[in-house]
């Protein structure tokens, strides 16, 4: 019967497309490294951080030039040089003044020590070269703007400076960002000042502190990323080891089971694991054990079937061969009767063997329903009594203590449970003497329903109480014809009872009388709390 599709289950069952060929270890490492890559994205933030530092410094330079402009205009001409020297020392900058025609009028470096020096990278240690190489690499990764390199003009005139030329043309303040030779920011800003004549004031500044700040932050972030990356890799390998290694062991065990060496395989149960892998290991171990038992049972069953079929076949063969040699009709009739009995025995064996071999598979596919065992047994005994009315053979009497309706409800397959009770009653009748009494009872005790069948026979020795449930085991009362029973009735009954999560056992009668008692225990149906 088709079932309605479950979208959630279908989504879970969809195969992995892009990562289907990846091992678990690779996937765990990939997921964790992607998280580290997101953390490494902090380098992008540091680039914007540097841009903000540069923009802030340029704005400060423009404000400083504006204040210097006001101070110079208010000061006497003989005080201006002193103001310029104080300004450049305080800001560690260089000031140059250019006339409208482009000639240089003044330079702070001409009348004082330089406030900064552009360093030659060829004269610096290799660590500085490595730092600059890392800066270029990170700038390339984050896509930083490609600023031009700074070169001191060969002729120091106004037109040699693009920002001075632009300020002369537009009359507006202009700024520039360049890289000094050692790859530190060299910032410039211009402003028109009106001293004795209109002039363009150019302020240049080698902002090494910005490079130091950005490199320090990048180093800290790199250390954090490296530590997190190492920790993540170690944790990923640990996680992969705790997941992949037991899965590989389980996979190897499963392959050995598939190759047919089930008896030698010991599937690890991983009792110390309380996670899904431990659950999987124990499930595979139980499945392997069940498979081993099923294989052993199948082999034993096949051997028992072969043995049981050989006897009637050999008897039939002997009877057929004897027919060729007998001379009298009486001997011929006797041999035919033997052959007929053996054929009937073969038919019973084949039927019972067929039923026994299909019970497990049929029970696994059966939908259990509520069954009132009291009503079932009552109906079975009524049918049995109706069939026995037309015969003159003496039969043991059957007494049934019928429980209250609904007191003995179980979940099961009604047809199979009828087979169990019928086999057990037939077994009790076969051991009871003519005119004896077979007592059947059905009661509810706690969460179980008990079905008991007592007979007046010789009873069962304690050493044989487990053997009677084995296939083809048959010990009949003295005088009963051999071959009338296949020895599968109680074996089939036990299989059906255990398929219903129940139990069947042989014991002595509770009342102390001679005879045997077979007790069937089945779990009561949920919601049935009435005692029988």
CATH class of the largest domain: Alpha Beta
Helix and strand element order: HHHHEEHHEEEHHHEHEEHEEHEE
Structurally, how many domains make up the residues?
3
Q: How does the overall form come out from the CA principal axes? A: rod-shaped
How much helical structure, as a percent, in the residues?
40-55%
Query: What is the gyration radius calculated from CA atoms?
Result: 51 Å
Structural class determined from secondary elements: alpha+beta
The amount of beta strand, in percent, is 5-15%
Structure characterization notes:
The longest helix has 51 residues, at 208-258. A 5-stranded antiparallel sheet has the order 2-1-5-4-3, with helices on both faces. Strands 7-9-10-12-11 form a 5-stranded mixed sheet. Strands 6-8 form a two-stranded antiparallel sheet. It contains 12 helices and 12 strands. The chain has helices at residues 7-13, 24-40, 42-74, 77-91, 126-142, 162-170, 208-258, 276-323, 329-365, 373-388, 414-431, 489-499, and strands at residues 94-99, 104-107, 175-179, 185-194, 198-206, 369-372, 397-401, 409-412, 437-445, 448-454, 503-508, 516-523. The protein is of the alpha+beta class and 532 residues long. The two termini are 38 Å apart. It has 3 domains: 42-218, PAS domain (Beta-Lactamase); 266-365, Signal transduction histidine kinase, dimerisation/phosphotransfer (DHp) domain (Helix Hairpins, Orthogonal Bundle); 367-388 and 395-477 and 485-532, Histidine kinase-like ATPase, C-terminal domain (Heat Shock Protein 90), CATH 3.30.565. It is rod-shaped and about 160 Å long. Strand 4 (185-194) and strand 5 form a beta hairpin. Helix content is 52%, strand content 14%.
